[in-house]
Amino acid sequence: MPRNQSLATRMFTHGNLVLCETLLVANVLKEEFVGVVQRSSWDNWVKVLFVMALVVGFMGGFFVLVQRLTRDAVGRTHVALAGRGLQRWLVHLALLTALYLLYAHRLGLRVY
Question: Does a structural domain hold residue 9?
């Protein structure tokens, strides 16, 4: 991407949006696992070690898997929407809006 483009233009590229969406989905799943561990009857030191291992190991591998699957799916969508910049932005807008509502729900916050 040319350096003379604005920072906002470079930040909101298709690839960066896919990465952002992948991170948000991975975090929701991580929080689910952490909640299960916190509610378990394990000793606290085991819970802490498990969550640390989850973040470093499982989520790292899961992130790679989700990113590959997402890129494949987005790649097919990108081909379908080739030359239709507005529609591609609408797909990202819809996904980010759904993630926003999911995060608000999980935080117990009413946003509408």
Answer: no
pLDDT 10s digits, 59-85:
677 677 777 777 777 667 666 666 666
DSSP 22: H
Residue 1 lies in a domain: no
Q: Which residue has the higher pLDDT, 21 or 5?
A: 21
Q: Which two three-digit tokens encode residue 61?
A: 């591998």
Measuring CA to CA, how many Å separate 18 from each of 11, 48, 86, 108? 11, 31, 16, 26
Angle between helices 14-39 and 59-80 (to 10 degrees): 140
Q: How many helices (H) and strands (E) does the chain have?
A: 5, 0
Domain count across the chain: 1
For range 53-58, the mean pLDDT: 76
What is the structure's pLDDT at 22? 78
| Residue 67: closest CA among 19, 11, 103 | 19
The separation between CA 44 and the C-alpha centre of its own chain, rounded to angstroms, equals 28
